[in-house]
Q: What sequence folds into this?
């Protein structure tokens, strides 16, 4: 033992020295640093989890948005189609109504024209009858020569044209 | 080769290296036998026990003296404590360089502990395992710094004689002033008792009388044996004195006390963990076993012996490696001054960290073995 240098006081001193070192290092180094490292690892894990969740959520909301978009598109198409249909119907109706109106106007105008013509014809006939009667009166009243007849008819006609005008 | 010598820069470097080699060989031990040896120094007295720097006090169990390995141990502890304080002060979530270094090493050890002993026990074993590792590394690497083993005080011949078992040696140099005859008789009388053992011990001659001496290059020839010293009545020349260098600093793990202290702490903690994890009955049952008949009992006794063998192997593996490293560096410095030591410094750096790793890993393995009941492995 002596030859190796082992002696009890020296051994105890070194044991105490190592114990002090152990104490110092655990107080100053291990506890704070290990807990810091653990905290950081925890934080990183949480961060990763959070980012995973966020990514999933983003994917989910993306899907929802896509769905809504397609829904909206379908809805829009439906609306457009409906609007077009309504417009078509409206136009048809309007056109039909206009056509009816026109028809009605035409019928009315035709009736008017008919009536006017009938009235004109009636007037004309009446006038002719009057003319014929007056011409006949004149013929009967005056002497019947050729020149006299001719002048008479012409005067009647002249009277009638100027009277007509 | 031609290319090497062609460039003036390479040529001059080659010449310088060759010159250093020649000077080193001639100045070293080989040159000494040819009559040169201007660089070589005396080999310091190599001894297993640590040297006493300051005489201490008596205790009931022996003398407490301040050993040079204790000084180094405390230096290593101070270095580690200062570094730890720096790390603690600059502790932040985003690590600085020093903190990152420690995190790297500690993370490595935590992973190792958790890998070998499981997550729960690993965390429990980690502080001791890491303390052992970092202390041994720092102590070993400090031990190869310049100044270790070469700067110290001079132990006078009577102290050396005391060390060699001659407890009443009187130094002729001190007695010379009084009556030379009787004291000389007394001294040589003791020398005869020890049948010339002491007479062959070499003393180094140091110049100067101050408190601090340095083993310097070129002092190889200034050696004198005890016999010659007594013949000369302690007169080694004007302003000189004979004795041994007692270095102030010596690598902490070249002292069996230090390595034994760590081995004891490690094994005590291993068994403490064994007791607290398995329960005292299961753990002690590994060593005192009546259940499995006489063979089981015998195996238990073998286990007890192997536990003591672990302490001894812990102690002497580290001690032997580091002590041998010191001697190797000394010898290389002696054989090839200046350059012989360079490759071995690298080797010692490597050995220093490897031994630290072995000590801490074995502690961890023993601890994880102690925390597992024996029966489990056998009955499976």
A:
């Amino acid at each position: 033992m002596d030859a190796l240098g082992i002696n009890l006081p020296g051994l105890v001193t070194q044991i105490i020295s190592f114990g002090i070192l152990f104490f110092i290092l655990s107080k100053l180094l291990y506890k704070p640093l290990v807990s810091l490292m653990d905290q950081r690892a925890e934080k990183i894990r949480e961060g990763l989890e959070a980012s995973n969740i966020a990514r999933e959520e983003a994917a989910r909301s993306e899907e929802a948005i896509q769905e809504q978009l397609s829904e909206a598109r379908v809805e829009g198409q439906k609306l457009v189609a409906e609007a077009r249909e309504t417009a078509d119907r409206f136009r048809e109706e309007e056109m039909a109504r206009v056509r009816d109106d026109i028809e009605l106007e035409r019928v009315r105008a035709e009736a008017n024209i008919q009536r006017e013509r009938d009235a004109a014809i009636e007037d004309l006939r009446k006038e002719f009858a009057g003319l014929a009667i007056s011409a006949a009166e004149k013929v009967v009243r005056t002497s019947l020569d050729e020149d006299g007849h001719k002048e008479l008819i012409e005067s009647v006609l002249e009277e009638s044209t100027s009277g007509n005008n | 080769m031609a290319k090497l010598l062609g460039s003036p820069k390479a040529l001059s470097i080659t010449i310088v290296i060759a010159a250093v080699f020649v000077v080193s060989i001639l100045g070293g031990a080989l040159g000494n036998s040819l009559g040169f040896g201007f660089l070589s120094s005396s080999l310091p007295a190599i001894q297993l026990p640590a040297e006493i720097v300051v005489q201490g006090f008596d205790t009931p169990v022996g003398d407490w003296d301040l050993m040079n390995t204790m000084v180094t141990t405390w230096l290593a502890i101070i270095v580690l404590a200062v570094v730890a304080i720096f790390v603690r002060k600059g502790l932040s979530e985003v690590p600085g360089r020093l903190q990152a270094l420690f995190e790297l090493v500690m993370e490595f050890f935590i992973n190792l502990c958790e890998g070998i002993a499981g997550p729960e026990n690993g965390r429990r074993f980690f502080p001791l395992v890491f303390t052992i590792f970092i202390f041994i590394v720092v102590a070993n690497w400090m031990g190869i710094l310049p100044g270790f083993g070469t700067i110290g005080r001079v132990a006078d011949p009577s102290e050396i004689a005391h060390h060699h078992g001659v407890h009443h040696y009187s130094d002729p140099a001190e007695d010379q002033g009084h009556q030379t005859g009787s004291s000389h008789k007394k001294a040589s009388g003791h020398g005869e008792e020890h049948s010339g053992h002491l007479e062959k011990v070499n003393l180094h001659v140091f110049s100067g009388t101050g408190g601090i001496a340095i083993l310097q290059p070129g002092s190889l020839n200034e050696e004198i044996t005890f016999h010659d010293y007594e013949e000369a009545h302690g007169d080694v020349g004007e302003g000189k004195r004979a004795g041994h260098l007692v270095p102030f600093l010596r690598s902490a793990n070249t002292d069996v006390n230090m390595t034994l202290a760590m081995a004891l702490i490690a094994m005590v903690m291993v068994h403490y963990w064994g007791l607290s994890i398995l329960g005292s009955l299961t753990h002690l049952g590994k060593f005192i076993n009546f259940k499995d008949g006489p063979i089981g009992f015998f195996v238990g006794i073998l286990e007890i012996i192997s536990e003591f063998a672990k302490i001894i192997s812990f102690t002497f593996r580290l001690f032997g490696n580091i002590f041998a490293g010191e001697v190797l560096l000394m010898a290389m410095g002696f054989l090839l001054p200046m350059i012989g030591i360079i490759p071995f410094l690298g080797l010692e750096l490597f050995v220093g960290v490897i031994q630290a790793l072995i000590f801490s890993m074995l502690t961890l393995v023993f601890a994880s073995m102690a925390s597992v009941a024996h029966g489990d492995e056998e009955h499976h």
